[in-house]
């Protein structure tokens, strides 16, 4: 027993027999945790001779920072954008279920909706930490309604909006409030967008470009005003053209203000993005790649037929079809599947695959000092994985919240 626990009397956990992801490499080290944070063992040894209250044998697991999903519309039968449902219960259900896929925090995502939906839903889900009850909520991702008619995808046309008056006033009219909002996806070619981008960024809200027909200079202009993300790269934007590469051109643009990174979301489910396109993006701009599930209501449901809203859908493997057709109804891959697929399809390292689901989304949201890394002082949100990147266990604030049954 140490004679002097000068810093804190809280119990210390020592994760042993593991490879931890730190400074872009898997390192054969123990991980120390106290009061939900990652502890610097050197200070510990100095004060307390390496005493741990609890040891966790990780059985040669990889330990990575918990995954962060910045774009998830629902899952397990829940659609966050459906106002008829009990929103809090729906978010809680999904938050609990995604623990088994290694997700420790997420941005519930709303597709284009009428103002009444935003006004009702946004105040109900506050930003909060995760725990045994489920993954933490980092704030909403509002995808629309300020997007392009031509690239609306599955967003309902009748609710699309433009910036008519001053910009931000239109935004407030639609959303009601920006409390609990982490990110907004908009089309930068809409008139009066640039002042909205600047205003959102000043309020600490991440601006993403998507569902858009913007050319490259419009996209660069938005980035110069503070936009920092591209929503599901390649999907719902102009295809790459060598004389005007559009939003895709941001990956190699020389007009990005110094020191900044433009991040981009990839749905790496093997269906929404061809593996060759995934490789092009990754090789052009590896440090900006953020894996997202873009998960829909059917994510996590078993194969077969399901009634979702007005539609019947049929799940076959990783595909969700409108029943009786070959029309894809959205992504149903979970985050752990996306990490595995990304690694296999891109040929990237284990470290890169894991950082695309943890460090990069944390950097995007400006929270990398506490999430997305195993640096000293960061939140002890962890995933334990085997060599094939299957999830063995998930921890939030140093506490086990899910473990695969043997
Ligand atoms: Zn979308």
UniProtKB/TrEMBL annotation:
Substrate binds at residues 154, 235-236, 243, 272, 328-330. Pathway: Amino-sugar metabolism; N-acetylneuraminate degradation. One of its GO terms (molecular function) is metal ion binding. SUPFAM superfamilies: Composite domain of metallo-dependent hydrolases (SSF51338), Metallo-dependent hydrolases (SSF51556). Its cofactor is a divalent metal cation. The active site is at 294 (proton donor/acceptor). The gene is AMDHD2. Residues 62-401 form the Amidohydrolase-related domain. GO terms for biological process: N-acetylglucosamine catabolic process; N-acetylneuraminate catabolic process; negative regulation of UDP-N-acetylglucosamine biosynthetic process. Binds 1 divalent metal cation per subunit. Keywords: Carbohydrate metabolism, Hydrolase, Metal-binding. Its EC number is 3.5.1.25. Zn(2+) binds at residues 143, 211, 232. It catalyses: N-acetyl-D-glucosamine 6-phosphate + H2O = D-glucosamine 6-phosphate + acetate. It holds the Pfam family Amidohydro_1. This is N-acetylglucosamine-6-phosphate deacetylase.
């Amino acid at each position: 027993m140490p004679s002097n626990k000068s810093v804190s009397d809280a119990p210390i956990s020592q994760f042993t027999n593991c490879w931890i992801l730190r400074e872009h490499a898997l390192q054969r080290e123990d991980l120390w945790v106290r009061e939900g944070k990652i502890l610097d063992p050197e200070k510990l040894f100095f004060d307390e001779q390496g005493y741990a209250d609890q040891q966790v044998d990780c059985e040669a697991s990889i330990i990575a920072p918990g995954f962060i999903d910045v774009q998830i519309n629902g899952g397990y039968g829940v659609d966050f954008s459906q106002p008829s449902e009990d929103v809090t219960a729906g978010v809680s259900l999904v938050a609990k279920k995604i623990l088994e896929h290694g997700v420790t925090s997420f941005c519930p995502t709303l597709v284009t909706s009428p103002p009444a939906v935003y006004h009702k839903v946004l105040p109900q889900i506050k930003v909060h930490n995760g725990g045994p009850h489920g993954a933490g909520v980092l704030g909403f991702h509002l995808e629309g309604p300020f997007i392009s008619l031509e690239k609306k995808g599955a967003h309902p046309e009748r609710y699309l909006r433009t910036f008519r008056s001053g910009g931000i006033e239109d935004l407030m009219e639609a959303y009601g409030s920006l409390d609990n909002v982490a990110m907004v996806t908009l089309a930068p070619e809409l008139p009066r967008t640039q002042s909205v981008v600047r205003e959102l960024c000043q309020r600490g809200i991440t601006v993403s470009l998507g569902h858009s027909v913007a050319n490259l200079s419009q996209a660069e202009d938005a980035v110069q005003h503070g936009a920092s993300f591209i929503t599901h790269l390649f999907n719902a934007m102009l295809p790459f053209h060598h004389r005007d590469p559009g939003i895709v051109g941001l990956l190699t643009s020389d007009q990005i203000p110094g020191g900044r990174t433009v991040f981009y979301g990839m749905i790496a489910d093997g269906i929404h993005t061809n593996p060759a396109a995934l490789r092009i993006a990754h090789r052009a701009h590896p440090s900006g790649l953020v894996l997202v599930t873009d998960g829909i209501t059917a994510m996590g449901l078993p194969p077969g037929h399901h009634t979702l809203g007005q539609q019947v859908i049929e799940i076959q493997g990783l595909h969700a079809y409108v029943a009786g057709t070959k029309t894809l109804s959205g992504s149903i891959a979970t985050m752990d599947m996306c990490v595995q697929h990304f690694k296999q399809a891109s040929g990237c390292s284990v470290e890169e695959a894991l950082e695309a689901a943890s460090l990069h989304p944390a950097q995007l949201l400006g929270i990398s000092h506490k999430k997305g890394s195993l640096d000293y002082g960061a939140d002890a949100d962890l995933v334990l994985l085997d060599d094939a990147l299957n999830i063995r266990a998930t921890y939030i604030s140093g506490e086990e919240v899910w473990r695969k049954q043997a």
